[in-house]
Write a structure and sequence with these properties.
Layout: E1 15-18, H1 19-22, H2 40-50, E2 54-58, H3 59-62, H4 69-86, E3 92-94, H5 113-132, E4 137-141, E5 146-147, H6 155-176, E6 181-185, E7 194-195, H7 200-207, E8 216-218, H8 222-227, H9 232-241, E9 249-250, H10 269-279, E10 293-295, H11 305-331, H12 333-339, H13 345-351, H14 355-363, H15 369-373, H16 378-389
Parallel strand pairs: 1-2, 1-10, 2-3, 3-4, 4-6, 6-8, 9-10
Antiparallel strand pairs: 5-7
Helix pairs in contact: 2-4, 5-6, 9-10, 10-11, 11-16
The structure holds 2,5-dideoxy-2,5-imino-D-glucitol (DIG) and manganese (II) ion (MN) (2 copies).
Length: 395
């Protein structure tokens, strides 16, 4: 952990932001932009000042869709200078396969082979850009891979198309020596009526059907799993257990709303605490996750540019505050006592299959009454979470 106080964000914390996040001009379906554009160079400078480790980008966040090759090279050169001057990295890159009208009915799953070919070409060019900038993770968010009229396309069709596209791009990444790990990001809906591969769970299964599953993982987002009404900590935990948490999109979300992409920790504070606790190793019971703490979020539309930087600082500061709360919680002797796992070598032996063990278990008389009666003290445990969060216990 860095020397000065443990709350002030520093590059060692591995906080990153997408150019599109702090660069969000505040446009929404019902209103025009409220903020002027912030250049990628200024974003790099300001985030470096705030203690971030790096920035991420879609191809078109940096190079506009219609830029010439010469313009592209000049833009990239200026951006790389800003990165070098500010000690900032680009850990992740991704492709905008959702803004241009050509993708209105999908990109990598579109019916027209020409559209799917154009989408592949756009990803290939963006992968090259990311490689030039040192990106190691490549995210795929299929914002337009979905439908409103489900009569149009059978699920087995879009599954096959997405698999064909990702197998193609995995092979291309290997052939080019980019060394990418791909991270698939799920979302259940918006902007499409339904988006294909709706949750991280769907993605985890789909990955195992690919030609190169070893190089493909997931990029779960807090808001997206919440849109599906699911427990984000459970879903990230399954990805961690499978060794497939290659990236993560941190933000916050009110239940039952559109995808709000709010400042990290600004809504479900207990959920954010439990997530940070898990990513940081759950009190040493598991390894700390070493990936980027990426904020895919943006400031309220009420904010000016100063408010954008308040937003960015708040994301990182809240993460570090929750990390320190989590360490104090797991160091709390009463918590440790409540979390102590019951041990019973006799029964534990019976849980590991052997023909003899199974035969013995089949005949074993087990008195279940004491277990049925015993209370689990989860009320006290959860109260301790609340008390640590409210600062009446721990540091
Ligand atoms: C939306 O949650 C998506 C896009 O912003 C981007 O493609 C991806 C990268 O974090 N998240
Ligand atoms: Mn989102
Ligand atoms: Mn995201």
């Amino acid at each position: 952990m860095h020397d000065h106080d443990r709350i002030t964000p520093a590059p060692e914390d591995r906080f990153t932001f997408g150019l599109w996040t702090v660069g969000n001009p505040g446009r929404d379906p019902f209103g025009e932009p409220v903020r002027g554009a912030i250049s990628p160079v200024r974003i790099v400078e300001r985030l470096a000042e705030l203690g971030a480790y790096g920035v991420n980008l879609h191809d078109n966040d940096l190079v506009s869709f219609d830029a010439s090759a010469a313009e592209r090279d000049a833009i990239v050169a200026e951006f790389r200078r800003a990165l070098d001057d500010n000690g900032m990295r680009v850990p992740m890159c991704t492709t905008n396969l959702f803004s241009h009208p050509v993708f209105k009915d999908g990109a990598l799953t579109a019916d027209d082979p020409a559209v799917r070919a154009f989408a592949l070409q756009k990803v290939m060019r963006s992968m090259e850009l990311g490689a030039e900038l040192g990106a190691e993770v490549y995210v795929f968010w299929g914002g337009r891979e979905g439908a409103e009229a489900d009569a149009a396309r059978d699920p087995r069709t879009w599954i096959a198309r997405y698999r064909e596209s990702l197998d193609f791009l995995c092979a291309h990444s290997k052939a080019q020596g980019y060394g990418y790990r791909f991270a698939l990001e799920a979302k259940p809906n918006e902007p499409r009526g339904d988006i294909y591969f709706a949750t991280t769970g769907h993605m985890l299964h789909f990955i195992e059907t690919l030609a190169h599953p070893e190089m493909v993982g997931v990029n779960p987002e807090v808001a997206h799993e919440n849109l599906a009404g699911l427990n984000f900590v459970h879903n990230v935990g399954q990805a961690l257990e499978a060794g497939k948490l290659f990236h993560i999109d941190l933000n916050a979300q009110k239940i039952g709303r559109y995808d709000q992409d709010l400042r990290f920790g600004s809504e479900d504070l207990k959920g954010a605490f439990l997530l940070v606790r898990m990513l940081e190793g759950s009190g040493g019971r598991f390894p700390r996750w070493e990936g980027m703490r990426h904020f895919d979020a943006h400031a309220y539309r009420t904010e000016d540019e100063a408010g954008v930087w308040d937003f960015a600082a708040g994301c990182m500061r809240t993460y570090n505050l929750l990390r320190e709360k989590a360490h104090a919680f797991d160091a709390d002797p009463e918590v440790q006592e409540l979390l102590a796992e019951p041990r019973d070598p006799d029964f534990e032996a019976l849980l590991r299959y052997s023909p003899e063990g199974a035969a013995a278990l089949a005949e074993r008389e087990i008195d279940v009454a004491p277990f049925a009666r015993a209370g689990k003290r989860h009320e006290r445990l959860d109260q301790l979470v609340v008390e640590h969060l409210l600062g009446v216990r721990g540091s």
